User: Fold these one by one.
Assistant:
Number 1:
Amino acid sequence: MMNRNKTYTLFLIYCLCLVIHTPLLAQTPKNKHTVSSDTDASLKKLKSNKGLCVVLGLPQADKASFVVELVQNTNLQVYFQSESQAEVAQVRRLSDEVGLLGQRIFADRGTKNAIALASNLADVIFVQKTAGNWDSKTELLRVLRPQGIAFLSDSKITKPVPKGNDYWDHPYHRPDNNPQSTDQNARSPYRTQFLANPKFSPMPEISVAAGGKVYKAFGHIAHKQNQNAILNTLMCINAYNGTILWKRKLPEGFMIHRNTMIGTEDALYMADNESCKIIDSETGKIRDEIVIDEKMADGPVWKWMGMQDGTLYALIGNKEVQVDTKKSARRGLGHWPWGMWKGHDYSNPKNAFGFGRTFVAINPANKKVLWHIREKDYIDSRGVCMKNDNIYYYCPDKFLACLNIKNGKQVWKNDDKKLLASIGSNQKAQHYVTGYATTTYLKCSDDYLFFAGPQRLHLVTASAADGYWLWEKEHGNLQLVLRDDGIYAAGPKETGMKLDYATGEKIASLPTRRACTRATGSVDSIFFRTSGGTVRLETDSHTAQHIAPMRPPCQDGVIVSNGLLYWGPWMCGCQLSLYGHICLGPEKNSSAPSTQTPPRRVTYTSELSDVEPLSVHNDDWPVFRGDNRQSSTTKAPIPKKSKLAWTAQVTKSSLPTAPTVAGEMIFVGDRNGVISAFDMQGKLIWKRYTGGAIYYPPTVNNHRLFVGSADGRVYAYEAKTGKPLWSFRVAPHQRLIPVYGKLISTWPVAGGVVVQDDTVYAVAGIAHFDGTHVVALNSITGELKQENNSSGALSQEVNSGISLQGSLYIEEDELRFLAGGVYETARYDLKTLTCLNSPSTEVRSQYRTAFYPYYPGYGKYLSIEHMLKDRRELVHDASYEGSVFTNLTLKEALPPGAPKAKKEAARWLSMRARRTGQAYKRKNLWEDQKQRRFTSFIVSPETILVAGHPDSKPDSPFLTAININEGTDLWTHKLPALAVKGGTAIDSEGRMIVSLENGQLCCFHKE
């Protein structure tokens, strides 16, 4: 035993040495680490070194190094699960020591017949010896993504692709340009599959999906700083867990928003102004290249392409207007200028985007041109589609024609004046109502051709048999989805309707489509943008359902493929609560059966009522921002002079929470799932692990410490010693999903916890459609007192409700938090947990949120409205996404009876009102002129302590004390990093603790 411990200690030292010299989060391991024979054998079985790996048990007892070695020699993310708490503790401890816990290694205890992951997530599973004979191969198959592999001791299992899965292999699903999926598995109701990077997209964006991968091409115009990083980038993403598999730079100068991208089972066809590249789906390397002889066409530029039965068809033509790459210096999330960017006026068909005269048919295997045909006039590729062995194409104002794809012969050509007059000239687009000038406007079914879209004044229908006019509708700015039961035409205001194919007669009205985003369809739904969020039209009942946190992205809409639905990323942040590449899947069989999962409440000691006392002073800081109202106030005096006493390192690999201070101790969590307790000299007293990220700080109450974790649980500890007392799973199931690089519960306890009297309040959830779960727990025993599981669907009529989008606080005997897009603030009765919000039946969202746990770059700036005893008021407004703010100001007292202006919590409307002069005016007694932004406040009777940075210098963070009466700085300390959100605390003796984004704690006290 002594030899074993000695070996283990030496190994830890070795790993610590490695972490000093090796970048932990590099894209590819630069140096291979020495591995054991067990690890080496597993590495040889891997098909890819990227993705999500599940490890069940260890190869042998005390072999936690296996998990670390697996991660260090690949780019895998690993979820480790074991029945043995000792094994879980080993993996957590070792992973923490080498900086991988909560970054790429996640570990938790679980039963033998249930894996705590969502379905269709894992690329590979290793069932190790200490797991024994795995009881449920059905469970392995559930968690594996299609074509994923599970390795058991004596066998392996490969998951087949489910029957009924469909691919979205062309930008509009198929070359008929009808964005209607035939996927039989992507059915409602839904649960979140993953939330992933990238969060934001340049303009334009175009996507296809096939073979278990999603391919996204990002264009040349950034409207915000957050889009610059992926300008002119092609990205391949794992369709089931959101892992970015590879990236390639796209050639600059080529406008990508067109049909020149096709996904297949093992390759991506990506055409540009030189050739069509055949890119290997696994590696991202160019496997082959197809170049068209310029003698055959007017030039080398690919304008359009489609594939049928393995043959590639394309429109080739002249060189075009070269577009310029435009970076942006504008900060913030949302809103961007519409305009006629270079080339978007389509002024000359000879060099306009997508105009060409030569169609070709190509065998990709040998690159042989099977036939080609050249027209005299230029064809607009926005008016080209293909179905049933025919290519239909339009030459603006001149003719509509049809080619047979088998022989390249023209089937018919129609220049009927009535048809051309009805279609009309291309109208100006590039407006948030009409949409993009580059959008395709011709679609086809078996029997009909349809002209509609941003450039059209009318919806015009022609016969696919001969091209003659059949009928038209007055409005043409319609996004069409063609289904067997009718034409679904999503339009602005009252123009949306369902139409009969033969007559054009209106069958039903559709909800209003807001703005430019295209409509798409699944087997049971039509998706398009409403006024904030997504409207899901249930086609069987014609009822409107609301998916509030995200709207369909501008140019893609909702992509339906691989049995899943995909949203984002976005070019703007208009009224969104969730950003990024978001995937939903069917709720059915999306997690392990609840009968197989561990109990919700777990106790770790039989002495729950007997804890070591912690002497808390009334003026300590035991909860986030000082009290349950988050008032950021204290009675403790802030020193007139101060100095740095000490610093301590909480974490080097993750963002820490704000600190809480009580009983001569400091408590802080971090996004690796670790809770650390320090004394007032900066010495670490104890450390404990949870199964997920901790976003808000621990709360101290009645000698106990309570914390909410992203694993979906609330944990209780003895505050003095860290002894575990109990935990309670607020989440309805154990179901971890990838969320921006971490594995967390579909229902994380992401808003922290609040404790009042003998009750702990917690909320679990991300989005209303997954469910929002509110609990009241006995603080001593962890037993459930009350719960509310229905507010995620507060409005049954449209299926929308409360989303957890803010930290919890108590005000006016109500539990409250920011609630997402439909309800600004969620409100619950403290005793019954009845939701007090009035249900809204409107399919719209209006409130803005950048929730700090998921968007720490945006949600960290704080606003303050603090009323002094004499009714003077300290005011600072910061917009939710950090783009605009007001200076910190002391305002004169409101006159008796004068109404106080109500401000939106997000402060976005407040900023707009300020710019237009509509804000309520009061005299400023003083105004900070240093243009400073703040992440934390502490208000004492005479002094306000602030942490932040100058607006133009985010790399110059500070901690400053300001005299409230005069508005002058008493003292300032430069900080090595910015304070985290609400990241200052103070104790009864005036000692100030600051938690920094670099993982440090700093203590300042009276000089």
Number 2:
Amino acid sequence: MTEAERRQAVARLLVIRASGHAEDRQRQYPVWEHCNRELQRLLKSGVGGVILLGGSATELQQRCRTLRSWSNSEDLLLCADVEEGIGQRFAGATWLAPPMALGRLHQTNPDHALALAERYGRTTGDQAHRCGLNWVLAPVCDVNSNPENPVINVRAWGDQPESVADLVAAFQRGLNSAGVLGCAKHFPGHGDTDQDSHLELPLINHERSRLDRVELVPFRRLIDSKIASVMTAHLLIPSLDDSQPATLSRAVLTDLLRTELGFSGLVVTDALVMEAISSRAGPGEAAVQAFAAGADLILMPADADAAINAICTALADGRIPESRLHESLKRRTEALQRCDKHSLNDTVVDLETATDRGLCIELIDSSLEVQGPLLPQHREQHGVTLIRVDGVLPCAFLHANTAAITTPERHGYKALICHDRGIEPWSNEQSPAGPLDLERLGKGPVFLQLFLRGNPFRAGQQRKEPWAEAIQQLLAVKRLSGMAIYGCPYRWDALRKLIPDNIPAGYSPGQMPEAQQQLLARMMGVSSEAHERQDFTD
């Protein structure tokens, strides 16, 4: 193999980040997303994979066509983090309730949960295929055994290993039927952490026997069912390797995953730009260590050229045997042979079918939890709905016309939205009465709507907010009229206990507009269809 051939072969193993939008100025994260000029250069030089984020599903269809036209090969890997359906990342497609919704349903109705999980995978795969993607970076196989997990949380399919294994296997069956590749992540298990690997390197101190009983159970199930790929976790697990994160550990990726568990598919790193890795090694060295450890594909190196150069040097110097390169290329080819070939043309394909839409509504409806009487309604504007957003605006699930804002306003509750870069509801001084600044809220009854879930890069900030004390404060002054929580089931399980029987409360794992509409309709005692018509006419 000549030096030029080796360089092109190594480039084939990189997966770089691109915006789903067509124009450079539309990029949401230009630090991570290559501009079009760089994308063309890297794809023509042999880079073999692109991960996409941003834009509508229709834009994504065209973007995938464009990226294929820029590539020097027909076997381009095109993927996205669409753990909650294509609509989670690309507007216009179906956004599904998070997997944890089915984890909770599985506790009471396992057969229904498994049937929905398989449809979940089929819908995700079908829409991915229609958009031009051939690789879905899901399912999450982490067992979310730590309620304080700041980054996995509702992304997991539950907190019981066998239940998670059953559900991810059902999801994967659905995905397989669509002819796209799946990815079990984050190996060997990110569920029992209270740190975010986007920001730091989490430490898991479990013994190997515990990993076998809990963390590894879903991965074993999907490996046995021939999952196409496994994504690594940026975790330090001393019982497996006391010096290297799993992503950079031969003990984890080769000895455990390949040899012991018998996985023969593609191993892909989690994004190497994450602080858990980038704070330890530069982009070239991180890529070399991951490849030497047993990874086949290098996802989002901080510098693609540096990663290619470093791996080529390591191969030339003998630090990594050239047989490793051929093995990874062979696995990549075998994986792509499992995909249905896309025949993309200039025709825009309808992305969401009536069946897809039906699944979206059914998932939401089957995961809602409501207690207490109906939410009081007022003819005049004299109440407030306090909406807490765990993150910054704008966000995909909350805009001016979403139900969380318009429905309470129509029934007498003026919206007050709190987020990191806007209004904060807390008092500047500690008060024995409670943490809320009630004067800032104004007068009248208060309807709490809390959008709380595990979000990357947030470092669990939502855990520090004293919502239990705030509820007790509002109860003491007889101003709490109701509570709705969207997202984290653990916050719901804790806070619902504080709500008296005479005050309504409700929960939805999903935060999307459809989930808001369904939950509020249930809490107000009206049909969601009537609710939707009323929102439309308003």
